[in-house]
Amino acid sequence: MVQKLTHEVRLQHWRQIVTDCRSSGQPIKDWCEKHQINVKTYYHWQKRVCQETCQTLYTQPEKASEVIGAPQIPAFAEITQPLRPKDALALTIEKNGLLIHIYEGAASQTIASALSALQHLC
Which of 45, 51, 88, 89 makes an SS bond possible with 14, Cβ 3.0 to 4.6 Å? Predict the structure, then answer.
């Protein structure tokens, strides 16, 4: 019983170290040096944490959020779209000698206004 408790305490400590290191954005070697942790020791702890996590997920899938620290409430993340050239022409409309150029990313309200103006002019 005491051994199991000791194991759990150590594992939780190692899990926190691995989480802190990975979320720091620093290379592992630099993070370990800054926190005075031997790199080989860190990798040993990381391996043990991963093995224990996989074992728990395999034997007790209902504990997944507990083991991997999944949020219990919805989380949102910003998703960025790839940049497109601002001058990429998507469509050209010609009516009675007037031209409307519509570029990629144009707002629908802008397009509607341009079409309305074209309709009134022609």
Answer: 45
Distance set, CA 77 to CA 8, 17, 20, 74 (Å): 32, 24, 20, 10
54 and 99, same domain (yes or no) = no
Task: Indicate the pLDDT class of residue 116, thresholds 50, 70 and 90.
Answer: confident
Report the 10 Å Cβ neighbour count for 57: 14
Let me know: does 41 contact 76? Beta carbons within 8 Å: no
Residue 59 near residue 68, CB atoms below 8 Å: no
- What is the tally of structural domains in the chain? 2
Residue 76 resides in a domain:
no
Task: Say if pTM beats, i.e. exceeds, 0.85.
Answer: no
Q: Which two tokens stand for residue 15?
A: 């899990």
CB contact set of 79 (below 8 Å; sequence gap of 6+)? none
